User: Fold this.
Amino acid sequence: MLKKLMVMVLLGTPTLSFADASSCNFISDDNSKNYCIAVAKKDASYCSFITDENRKNMCIAIVKNEPSYCGFITNSDQRNNCLGQAGS
Assistant:
């Protein structure tokens, strides 16, 4: 379970919303951990602790269900991934 959760976090997959936020505490990378908690709890306040701007914007877009934040993502693959997930 933990390995699957970490893969989903690293890929920026929002499907981990089914996961219990306590599982996120096992993730050592702070950006990944905050992303995991934000998505699991549907609480965008955790996104503000993410230092990678692309990941932060994806986090906000997905948690708030607001695809306009995807437009701030500079990496085109990540931006397209975000647009495919936010608002769906």
Q: What stands out?
A: The first helix runs from residue 2 to 11. The two ends are 25 Å apart (CA to CA). Residues 7 and 13 are 8 Å apart (CA to CA).
